[in-house]
Specification:
This protein has three helices and eleven strands. Strand 8 and strand 9 form a beta hairpin. The radius of gyration is 18 Å and the shape is globular.
């Protein structure tokens, strides 16, 4: 059973925290998803009958937790989607990768193949910038906590790009992590969203820093 934390709500949008290992929307597994949870919350809060409109304008991988925004009207959904297309929608992540890295920019061309992001000459450009926050050590193994500014939004982009430079994220067995499974948490969290409000156009930001588990490593 997952909990729902609401960071902000008005007539046009709602900003929530998606827990790790929770789907963004329903899939063939029929497991719980954040879209349905938020719809249920709105239906109960406002005593609505019938279906509740809620626009899914971006996603987080199932294993990734963090801040998500949903549109409560079709106009808000359209304008938020436009902001994403025009790269006026900023997503910042915390990531824990294996080994020690220096701050930098990663550029690759990625394609989706067999539910994986792979490097390909004809792939789409994937760009991110990251800054080292601190170096960590757990059970005599080195890790690096980094702040990631996602410049493009490709499938599994952060996970794939760090794996391609030989520093997969902690617990990311899909992309080559080899080691102990700590708390069944992927070392990736969307901690901040910034975007223009779909109606007022004012730039707004929402933040949630993860706690406990791998995020308490020192």
């Amino acid at each position: 059973m997952f909990n729902l934390e609401v960071l902000y709500e008005d007539n046009h949008l709602i900003v929530v925290v998606k827990e790790e290992n929770l789907l963004s929307q329903k899939d063939k597994t029929e497991d719980e998803d954040i879209l349905s949870l938020v719809k249920g919350y709105l239906k109960e809060k406002y005593q609505k009958e019938g279906n509740v409109y809620l626009g899914l304008v971006h996603r987080l991988d199932r294993r990734v937790g963090g801040v998500m925004v949903f549109a409560k009207t079709s106009k808000a959904a359209s304008r938020l989607s436009k902001a994403i297309r025009e790269r006026d929608f900023e997503k910042k992540y915390l990531a824990i990768c294996v080994g020690k890295v220096e701050s930098g920019i990663l550029k690759h061309k990625l394609s989706k193949k067999d539910q994986m992001a792979v490097e390909a000459k004809d792939g789409k450009e994937a760009v991110l910038e990251y800054k080292v926050i601190k170096y960590l050590k757990e059970e005599e193994r080195d890790y690096t906590l980094v702040d990631v500014d996602l410049i493009t939004g490709r499938y599994n982009q952060i996970r794939a790009q760090f794996a391609l430079i030989g520093h997969p994220l902690i617990n990311d067995f899909k992309y080559g992590y080899q080691g102990k499974n700590y708390f069944d948490q992927l070392g990736l969290w969307c901690y901040e969203l910034s975007f223009p409000h779909p109606i007022t156009k004012e730039k707004i930001s929402f933040k949630k820093i993860p706690e406990g588990g791998i995020w308490s490593f020192k």
